[in-house]
Amino acid sequence: MHSTSARVFGGLRALLLGAAAMGAGVAAATEAVAQEVQRGGRLTVAADTEPRNINPAMVASNGVFFVSSKVVEPLAEMDYEAGLRGVLAVGWEGSEDGRTITFRLREGVAWSDGTPFTSADVAFSAMEVWKPLQNLGRAIFADLEAVETPDDHTAVFRFTRPTPLQLIENALPAVSAVLPRHLYQGTDIAQNPLNNAPVGTGPFLFAEHRPGEYFRLTRNPGYWGEGQPYLDEIVYRVLPDAASKAAALETGDIQLTAFSAVPLTDLARLDAIDGISVIPGGYEGITYHITLEINHRRAELANPLVRRALAHAIDRNFIVDVVFMGYAAASTGPVPATAADFYTADVPAHAFDPAEAERLLDEAGYPRGADGTRFSLRLRPAPWFQMTRATGDYVRQALQQVGIAVELVTADSGAHSVAVYTDHDFDLAIGSPVWRNDPAISTTILFQGGLPAGVPFSNQYGYDDPEMNALIAAAAAELDRDRRVALYHDFQRKAATDLPIIHLVDFTFITVARDEVKGVASNPRWATSSWADTWVAR
Amino acid sequence: MTPLARGTAAVGAALLAAGIALALAAPWLAPGDPMNMVGRPMLPPLADGRFPLGTDQLGRDVLAGLVHGARVSLAVGAAAAAAAIGVGILVGTVAGFLGGLVDDALMRLTEAAQTIPTFLLALALVSVLGATAGNVVVAIALSSWPPTARLVRAEVLRVRTLDYVDAARLAGRAPLAIAFLEVLPGALAPVVALVGITVGEAILVESALAFLGLGDPNLQSWGTMVANGRANLRVMPSLVVLPGVAIAAAVLAVSLTGDALAARLGGRR
User: Fold this and answer.
1) For the structural domain made of B3-268, what CATH number should be given?
2) Which of A158, A169, A174, B254 is the most exposed place for a label (fewest CB within 10 A)?
3) How much is the pTM?
4) What's the pLDDT tens digit per position in A288-303?
5) How many folded domains does chain A comprise?
6) What interface predicted TM-score (ipTM) does this complex get?
7) Min CA distance, A243 vs chain B (Å)?
8) Test the A interface: residue of B127, B128, B235, B240 with most A CBs within 10 Å
């Protein structure tokens, strides 16, 4: 499989150029179409996690979507060509004043028990689930006042304040899973047993979950998609660790692993095996960052010269090449280059330059002492990815080379979150925030001042800049697309100038699949999409 | 001593001496911080003269990790074992010598401590206290003193009835002086046999904690190396095998040496 290997290894950086991402996706899609689709059969994949609640309308997370996005559908999904493709909605428009968005809904769609899908289901999901209960929806739909249903196939969202249509569009794939009103209304939604056995309009029906063993989905014979889905069954097998997932892939016990489930060091070996391919596409809509989080309550770190020195002291490309083995891209700021509609490269750059870092530290008034050390810091690497821990090891080494002594402090996930986001008991930390396709969803919260302590993955850094706060507020209420994008360009420049936190690399995930699995990576959120067009060759 | 016992004793002592020598010479054998990423990642052993045992997935020198890891394993193992034996001797002597209510209280405490599996207790302690080398020593010491305490108490109970102890009492010496200066030396010989086991176990517990990510993140330890190498088992087994062999050799060395020492001091076997 050396031909794919070459494409794959240079792949991610090319993919991150945005335009190229479209090209690769189209290529993958046409490749699938070129072959005659074969129907039937079972696809067995490695389970990612076993979340307790797999209701995607309540818990908008990739671990939940991996299973339940095949059962419960959103209003719209990301698409390589169109950007956004209607699923349960076929079209939408916003009003001039930004206070209403009208969705036209797909006709002829039924829930798996035969009840027709109507605008009442959308209104119920939005007002009773997304807005009050969903992790992301709470913020995005905070100003949603009511959803009107003039007829069965029209839903009109009314907001109390002007809300950019662009923000809602970008949020739709992740936040708009529609639940059946007739099965949820009048129940305690948070405790409804369907949260563990979801019912939706999607191409597959939830069959069973055996904890510690597998999830099983079966074909929905009444699915609205013409002739879809192609598969009869999807089984998510729970496997104990990364090495056993790689072994199961080799023996054919599973046919696919997503979310970089096998060790990066194993990819070259697996790709060389006949019948197995490494596929880096299909995650452009699910980008993560590795960040250096900085506690401005430390006098040294409140000094912008010191923060600029930190940015110059760390070699982002080293992290890309060694920690991520090339499967990542050096970051220029809080928006990844894959997000072509918001990204700007026109920001102050901080190239790797230890000499410049040392000069800045001297200028800031922290010369090297007799032992060669300027000052010492405590660094907490987030424990959730092997890569965050390894980046911590590298940052310690890089800062020690410019005379900053670093002591690593490790803790389990719970203790780490409390230490950083509640107690502020850190000097530096390595974090991994998620880019969710619009800066207003989960990115600006990392820079906004005045947030209460205890909000995870938010600005708990002690940075509170009036100009930055004003920019964030202006962009959140700007209805004009071009002006909104321009404001976010200013936001990126401000972030790269002040460096309240330092974005180090952008990374997505990798799929490893056996070659009989077709229709893989067919959209930018493939692993968390419906898989209606996925099939297995025999 | 049988020739076989003499042979194993020599092997143990040689291994231990080699380990200590490597640990002491680490700053000269592999200068600099062994945590530093210094070479191309995933170099196999014997491929590059600068890194005779290769590099790990982050480009850290495996040889540097092994020799500096010897320092961590041996120092933590010895310190933890010394602390555990110290606590055990104190508790055992006081309980055995004073008897009565004090004995009952201390022995119930010892039994209670013994019902908690050593490793689980150490795991819990390090999770709560934080992963630093000092805390690992404290955790191992606090979880592995009971066997020493029980052994010392039994010996003290035997020795304190001997005539020379009565003589000391008649001579008017203070009870604490009798306990620690007269009784304890006579009761120590069997403790030597425990030293090898306790140090060996401390090394194993330290490695296991590090393997689970609870070692000191600022130090390169053999357990950490095994944990990091595990994901690469299929690609480069040496990353797991080399530190694994080092752990096994260190535990074997202290066990064999401890046995030999006990046999010599005890005059038995």
Assistant:
1) 1.10.3720.10
2) A158
3) 0.86
4) 999 999 999 999 999 9
5) 1
6) 0.88
7) 6
8) B235
